[in-house]
Here is the input.
Amino acid sequence: MTDRAEAFHYRDGDLYCEDVPVGDLCAEHGTPLYIYSHAALTGQYKALADAFKRCDPVICYSVKSNSNLAVVRSLARLGSGADIVSGGELHRALKAGVPSDKLVFAGVGKTDREIGDALAAGILLFNIESVPEAYAIDRVARGMGVVAPVALRVNPDVDAQTHRHTTTGKKGTKFGVDIDRAVAVYKELNELPSLDLCGVHVHLGSPVTTLAAYEDALDRVVTLVESLRDVGITSVRMLNLGGGLGIVYRDEATVDVEEYAACLRRHAEALDCQLILEPGRFISGNSGVMCTQVVYRKEAGHKTFVIVDGAMNDLIRPAFYDGYHAIRPVTGAGRGTETVDVVGPVCESGDFLAKDRHMERVDEGDVLAVFSAGAYGFVMSSNYNSRPRAAEVLVMGDTASVVRERETVEDLTRGESIPDALLADQ
Ligand code: LLP
Here is the structure.
């Protein structure tokens, strides 16, 4: 079982996650509810690992895409490392049992404290995003009497044609160092005694749906590493080629995993480097759904609105990236179709899950599955409008476990207090 089509499927009109009826889970745990398939998660990981097996990469699952401990643990058990971007993700990855020597740490704003914690844990690699950050890592490492393994993240100036919020490999984004300055930067950083300049890192954006962007960027990276070797910087032995591999949300064409592997392998082999990968969405995206219940139907201004109990605070991708997520009722499908907007209760016109969507007719009380919500779903949720965050459930075969409890209204005010001066009446 490797993708949503198999892990999430209909039997006699009822949606199942593996062998568990999704409707039963929603009745038991309420909505909105995130449901993940262990078989889909591990199947996707294995498909990637298989495609790359000839070059034995370090696969560092990108924790930001879905950081639930049970999800990270499911992958760590298969040998996955983790791509982390904060002290919080370091904590999660270690807690889920990811070995520290399989952790890579990216992000443009690492603080001294995060750097120190990562050095103390003994991570595999820092992906350095700027020269000042390199100096900070060198300083912190020196203070601890250790040498920090680092890869310079280069910006190859390639347009991966992703949404403007998620493109990173084009000149002018905040990520990495311009590739045309990279040799000079490596020369400068080579003088810092507590850095081991052992890698190059590149990540183009997300999701990437054509191989051409990877080909272009990797050609530039190969040229860079050859130039470094020409000027005597021979320490580069790891090639971290990031993540970004697209998935099918609707029916769009995307990159075939075998072709992706062949392209990346060819470049890593040309340089005789250890390959590192940071896949997120490819593993988690189609391994999860968000379920939400219809509260009301409403006609207004020539439109039909289906108002559901899941909102932009639960799944922000439609509002933030115009992301398309297929939506279908979890039971009793087949009642004809109509065109509707599926919207949440949050007080913003941007609060929608689908606009002008031609979909099966649904009524008040029906539960809907919002597909492809395993990546950048729950992790991007918030308490906006003082809405408690959803519960998360992991299904393994015929067994379902709550892997994060639904927040309560008490959780919403935890940590808040009213100063004494305000407690007394005027
Ligand atoms: N490595 C780096 C350095 C990254 O910045 C990212 C994602 C990844 C790996 C994993 O990319 P993936 O394989 O998941 O495509 N919230 C957006 C996506 C943001 C991606 C951020 N970086 C969305 O919902 O589409």
